[in-house]
Amino acid sequence: MNKSPAVDIAKRRQDTDGVVTLSTGVRVRLRPIPPGTMQEARASVPLPKVPVWINPDKDREEPNPNDPEYLDALTECNRQRIQAIEEVALMFGLELIDGVPDDGDWERNLQWLARRKRLDLGGYDMTDAVDREFLYKKHCAVGPNDWRTIQKLMGVTREEVDEAADNFRGDGEG
After folding, report:
1. What is the mean pLDDT of residues 100-129?
2. Which residue ranges make up each domain of the chain?
3. 44 by DSSP, 3-state: which?
4. pLDDT digits (tens, 9 = 90+) for 44-78
5. What is the largest CA-CA distance in the chain?
């Protein structure tokens, strides 16, 4: 038995062809993700600018990395960067063995949520194959407990994700 229950579960679910059955019943093959693609996704969310204040004792502007609005913006930036990396993992790291289902049930469910303002489908074209694949992977194929398994099989630990999030602060702040 491994140290990680996620790895044990994944190994039990893994076929001889490297196919993993997710908790939702969807079969995927994990693919390596080019580091440059991950870096580009992270960089697509720019860091907020550190505000400055006038230090009356020194009569000059100084950075104020403890400004509450800046800290809120930094938290939001980190959330968006992690989301961007997770989205790259979905699109580049998971190959759907059986493809995107054509039955439309999953699409109707997403549209139902969108009509009730529980899901924003703005910016997605349900007739576009790439958009459909992304929406299916994000909202149907991968269950909440599958992320740990996916990260482990891709060689990424939760600690590394947390450390990466801390490093997103930049400017010596994280």
Report:
1. 94
2. 5-44+84-167
3. coil
4. 999 999 999 999 999 899 999 999 999 999 999 99
5. 69
What tokens were used for 111?
Answer: 């549209």
Average pLDDT over residues 103-124: 93
pLDDT on residue 148: 81
14 pairs with which residues across the strands?
20
Q: Which among 160, 157, 154, 158 has a CA at the least distance from the CA of 30?
A: 154
CA gap 61, 59 in Å, rounded: 7
Please state, in angstroms and rounded to a whole number, the distance separating the CA atoms of residues 35 and 18.
21
Residue 103 has pLDDT above 90, yes or no: no
Q: What is the DSSP string of 116-174?
A: TTSS--TT--TTSHHHHHHHHIIIIIS-TTHHHHHHHHTT--HHHHHHHHHHTT-TT--
- Rounded CA gap, 168 and 74, in Å? 9
Residue 96 phi/psi, 5° resolution? -75, 115
